[in-house]
Write a structure and sequence with these properties.
Layout lengths: L2 H12 L4 H8 L3 H9 L7 H10 L4 H12 L14 H13 L5 H16 L1
Length: 120
């Protein structure tokens, strides 16, 4: 599941909408919407992103928050370590090989450390 997909699902459920109803309203297939929520599909088009935000009545701050989630939601992220140290490349590859085995706690700890580094 991607951060964007998780938020779409939360908004849909908060409003008591079924996946089928929302998909019908947006004129997309329920299979596509489900795949988008679960991170099995790439990011939505810019037009669909705006349509989803309008569907939920999101304005300014909420719209910007959704845009930030889009930026963090590529389910096929890649890391280009060209020009970096061998350690950087090893880290990226080890992470890619082991991310699926990480617990939610480990993921949270790593995210916290990366966010702290970003603020520094």
């Amino acid at each position: 599941m991607t951060p964007f997909g998780k938020r779409v699902r939360e908004l849909r459920q908060q409003r008591g909408l079924t996946l089928k109803k929302m998909a019908q309203d947006l004129e997309i297939s329920s299979a596509y919407l489900s795949a988008l929520e679960h991170g099995y599909r790439g990011l939505p088009s810019a037009a669909l992103f705006v349509q989803i935000c309008e569907y939920f009545g999101l304005i300014w701050d909420d719209f910007e928050a959704m845009q930030k989630l889009i930026d963090l939601s590529n389910p096929q992220a890649s890391v280009d370590t060209r020009g970096m140290s061998a350690g950087h490349t090893e880290l990226a590859n080890e992470f890619a090989r082991n991310i699926g085995a990480m617990t939610a706690v480990e993921v949270g700890e790593l995210l916290q450390a990366l966010r702290k580094k970003k603020r520094a």
